[in-house]
Design goal:
Layout (H helix, E strand, L loop, with lengths): L1 H5 L3 E2 L5 H7 L4 H7 L1 E5 L1 H9 L4 E7 L6 H12 L3 E5 L1 H7 L8 E6 L4 E4 L11 E4 L5 H14 L3 E5 L8 H7 L7 E5 L2 H10 L3 E5 L6 E2 L9 E5 L8 H6 L2 E4 L11 H13 L1
Parallel strand pairs: 1-4, 3-4, 6-9, 7-8, 7-12, 8-9, 10-12, 10-13, 11-13
Antiparallel strand pairs: 2-5, 3-5
Length: 273
């Protein structure tokens, strides 16, 4: 069916050169070299279209059902240079990491909203910003990005050793928010913190301190930047030392610290109050 609709042949070989290249995008190094990332499912294709992402490939499993509107949209993208591939079930299985795939994959170019920087050079004083040091779990990173879009956080700053924002697990957890949120990945996390301070930001480390602020009791201001640390080790001593203050989420006694993504969502909600 799709052969006639899109004027392409169905690819049945897993060793097809284009299929091999797309499959290699599961590797971070190759993603960075090609400046491409993979979105799995119809929802993420629609999100990519709605937010004007530059789409290099749309891969369609040859036995799925697409509505007429989406077919016409894909045709328009094909005319504008997007490569549409129709593939067999076996070939599609080589490309997807989903347990219940929807039969459509989008390959997008890296987004202009996301930047890899040596250091944050300046910051808009009015921006709501949060920073994240060494968050390793991709599910947490994706949820953080999704929450940022939901709560109107203007910019996220990740240390370069955080989980890759373009991994399929992050993209899946972010649920399309990857296209909406400004993100900086910085090599010099401490230097970026100091730059924000010079620009009038108050830096708050979310950790226990001698005179910690208490979230809910002490108000978060627009110029506050909250730092969330590694899931197991928290925020490094060096970063806490450079912060203006520490801040705590009040909890019941004898309880473990919150999941990084959950703690982030609480701070984001407080920003919105």
């Amino acid at each position: 069916m799709f052969e006639e609709i899109f004027g392409v042949e169905t690819i049945t070989s897993k060793t097809n050169s284009t299929i091999v290249k797309i499959a290699k995008l599961s590797n971070k190094k190759y993603r960075n070299e090609e400046k491409l990332f993979v979105c799995d499912g119809k929802k993420l294709l629609i999100e990519a279209i709605n937010f004007g992402a530059e789409i290099k490939y749309i891969i369609i499993k040859n036995d799925i059902i697409l509505d007429d509107e989406l077919i016409e949209t894909i045709k328009k993208y094909k005319k504008n240079g997007t490569i549409v591939l129709c593939v067999s079930s076996q070939v599609f299985a080589k490309l997807t990491e989903e347990s219940a795939p929807q039969g459509i994959i989008t390959v997008c170019k890296f987004l202009e909203k996301q930047r890899r920087l040596a250091i944050v050079e300046n910051a808009n004083f009015e921006e709501k910003i949060m920073m994240f040091e060494s968050i390793r779990d991709p599910g947490n990173i994706g949820t953080i990005i999704r929450n940022a879009a939901a709560f109107g956080i203007d910019r996220l700053i990740f240390s370069s050793d955080c989980a890759d924002i373009y991994s399929t697990k992050v993209i899946r957890a972010a649920m399309g928010a990857i296209f909406k949120v400004k993100i900086d990945i910085v090599d010099d996390f401490k230097g970026s913190l100091l730059t924000l301070k010079k620009n009038g930001k108050r830096i708050l480390s979310a950790t226990l301190g001698k005179k910690s602020l208490i979230l809910g009791k002490d108000e978060l201001l627009t110029n506050d930047v909250v730092i969330i640390g590694n899931e197991g080790h928290g925020i490094s001593e060096e970063i806490v030392k450079e912060s203006d203050q520490t801040i705590l989420i009040p909890m019941c006694e004898n309880t473990e610290s919150l999941n990084a993504a959950i703690a982030t969502s609480i701070f984001m909600w407080e920003y919105n109050k």
